[in-house]
Amino acid sequence: MTPSATTAPGPMTPTGPAADALRVALVGNPNSGKTALFNALTGSRQKVANYAGVTVERKEGLVISPSGRRTVVLDLPGTYSLRARSPDEVVTRDAVLGHLAGEVPPDVVICVADATNLRLVLRLALELKAVGRPAVLALNMVDIAQRQGLDIDTDRLSAELGMPVIGTVATRRRGISELVTAVEARAEADAAADAETGRPQSGGHGWTEPSAAEIRHLHREAERILKACVRPPRRPDTWTGRMDDVLLHPVWGIAILLGILFVMFQAVFAGAKPVMDLITAGFDALSALVAQRLPEGLLRSLICEGIIAGVGSVVVFLPQILILFLFIILLEDVGYMARAAFLLDRIMGGAGLHGRAFIPLLSSFACAIPGIMATRVIDNRRDRLTTILVAPLMTCSARIPVYTLIISAFVPARQVLGGLSLQGLVFFGLYAAGMLSALAVAWAVRKVFWRSASEPFLMELPAYKVPDPANVLRNVALRGHIFLRRAGTTILSMMVLIWFLCTVPGKPAGAAGPAIDYSFAGVIGHAIGPLLAPIGFSWQMTVALIPGMAAREVAVGALGTVYAVSGGEESSRVLGASLAHQWSLASALAFLAWYVFAPQCASTLAVVKRETNSWRWPLIMFGYMTGLAYLAAFIVYRTAVAMGAG
Amino acid sequence: MSPVNSVPLPPTDRPSGPAVEGLVSLADGRRGLCGVIASVGAAPLASDAVLADELERRLLEMGFVEGARVEILHEGFIGRDPICVRLDDMRVALRRREARGVMVRTDPRP
Amino acid sequence: MGEALLVYLIVAAAAGWTAWTLVLRGWWARRAAAQRVADTAARGCGPDCSCGN
Q1: What is the ipTM, given to two decimal places?
Q2: Can you name the CATH fold of A3-231?
Q3: b/e A139-155 (16+ beta carbons within 10 angstroms → b)
Q4: Global confidence as pTM
C-alpha cells in the first residue's frame, strides 16, 4: 500500500491507518485560492458533508501522489489566525491542533498563500509553525505575482519559515505534483523523526491564544521575513484600484449594484424560459408514453399523475437555479461580494444587520439552509441570530416555482416601460418585498430582543480576479446536483405520499363531485379551510400548503396533483391555465403574499434548531413568519377584492 | 480626538513643520488621508459587545499594526461610513467606529 | 389484487423514506456524532489539554 515509505530515511512505522493513507489539511486566508487548489489537487474525487455535530461544510478529496501513495486532503474553512472567532474558524483551529472530535489529526498542513498578498498569511504560517505540525507553504497564484514583477526568494522564505515552499497556479494545475511530492517528503521526514525519538513530534497540546503583544511580535517577524524575501512588484496591479473607483463610488457603485441584481433576476426569469419549456415538453412526452403502455388503474395514476407530473413540475426549475448560482458564484470569484458588503453595510447596519450578513442573505436567495449555515461568518451571537431569523424572508429558489406558476398564470406577458417584461417586474417586486421585510424584521428584532452595538465590520477586499471557468462550472454543477438529488429523493417520496393522500380512499360508487373530495387530503383541507378562508384560500390551496411544508416547491407539484386528480380529464392541460380558470385574481395575489412570508419549509426550521441549539428560535421564527404571512395575505386579498378582483 | 491606550509613540525624525501634520484617528480621516499608523489601541466603544482587547487583536490580525502605511481610498455613501483603506498592499473595509482606536501620523502635505 | 399491493408497497416505501430524510436521519447523525465525541473523550486527553473534551 505504501511503496513510497521505503524511501524514508530511518525505520518504517507501519502502524495504524495513518501509515496507510496520508492525511493533509489545507489552511489559508480567505481569498487565497484555497478551494481552487483543493479542486486542482483532488479533481472530481471529492466528498462534501458536514463535520460531526456541527454544520460547517466538510470537503474531503483524494489525491494519489506520483509515487502512488493515497493522500486524503481536507479543505478547512479560511481563517486569518488560529485564534478562532467563528464556528468555521473553530473547526480550522481544532483540526490543525488535532482536537476535532471524529477527525484524525492531519499528518501535514498545507498553508495556502496568495503570492501577491503574503503579509497576513506569513503570520498564519508562523502560528502553524509554533503549533509544531509539519507544514508546507503553497505559494499560490505565482503567475500573477510574476506578471506583476514580484520577486519572491523561495529558498530564503523556506529557510525563514522552516517549511518547504512550493509555487503553484491552482487554476492551471501548475506545481501540483511538486506540492504533493513535498508534502509526502515532509510527512516521511516527520515520521522518521518520530521513530527516532520514540514519540510524536507534532501535536497541538499546550497551544494558547496569542495576546495582542504576541500578535504584534508575530507580525513584526512576518514583516521582517517579507522584507528579506520579497521584492515589491515592479508593475503592481492598478486594475483593482481603478475598478474600485467606479464600483465603490457613492453613486455609480450603488447604481451598478442595483443593476447587477436586476439583470440577475431578469436572467433568471427570461433567460431560463426556452430550456424550461423543453423540460416540460420532455416530461409531458414521458407521461404520455407511460399512459400508452399501462392499463388504466391505480398504478398508472400513481406513475403519471403522482410521480412524473409531480417531479417534472419541480425539475423544470433547474435552469433557473443554475442561472442564479452562476451569478452568485461568479460575483464571489470575481471578488465583488466583499464590495457589495461594503456598499450595503450602512443600509444593513441601519436595520441592525452586519455588512457580512449580506453574504448569508444573498445565499438565502438560493436556499435559506446554506444561507443560515453561512451565518457562521458572523462572529457575534446576536448579529448571527438576527440574520438567521430573517434569512428565510429572502426569496429562496424553492419559491421560484411557485412564483413562476402563479405569475405566468395571472400576470399578462406584456412589455411595459419600454421593453421590460411585466412578469419580470412582478417577480422583482416579490423579491423586493422579501428583502424589505427582512430589513424591517431585523430592525424590529434588535428593538425587541436586544439593544447593543453590533459586531465589528472588518473585512479584506480582495484584488479583482478573472474567474476560472472550470471552477465556476464545477461549483454550479455541484449546486445543480444537490437540487436534483433532492428532487429525486425527498421530493419524489413526497409526491408519492401526496398522490396517495389525494387518491385514497377512492370515491364511493355513485357519489357526486370530484374524487379528491373523499380522500384524506380533502378531509384535511376541509378541516383547515375555515382558518384560511378569510385570506381567500380555497381548500385545494390549503391542501397544497400542507406538503409544501416539506419543501416549498412541493406545493407546485401538490397543486398539480390536486387539480389533475380533481379535474379528471383536465390532467393533460397546463396547470397554470387550470389555476387561472379556478382561482380568482385576489386569491392568487394572496397566495403570492402568503408565500413571501410563510415558514413553508420544515428543513429550514430544522437547520435553525441545529444552528441555535434550541427550539426557542425555530418556534419564534415559525410564529412570526406565519403571523406575517396571514396578515400580508389578508391585506392583499381584502384590498384586491375591494378593487373588484375577487 | 479620543483617548487611546498609552502605547508609546515611536520617535519621529520628521520636523514638526506644517500644521496639517499630526496625529489623527483613522475614524476622523477623510478620503485621501495618507499616513503611517502610530498606534493601535482599544478605543472606548459605545458598548462592550466586543471587548476592547478583542477589537485590538482583530485590528492587529487584519494588519493594522504600528508602522503600516494607510490611505483612505473610499467612503460609504451614507454618513461617509464605512471606509475602505489601503493598508500596505491590501485593501480593507471597516466602519469608522472600529477605526477609532487606530491613530495615524499623517504625511506632510507637499 | 397485485396492482393495488404494488401501489401500497410503493407508498409505504415513500412514507418510510420521507420519515427517514426528515426525522430519523438527523437523529441518527446526532447519535453517531455524540458517540464519536464520547470515543474521543475515552481515548483521553492530557490534563493540560485545551481541546475541551
Answers
A1: 0.79
A2: Rossmann fold (3.40.50)
A3: bbbbbbbbebebebebe
A4: 0.76
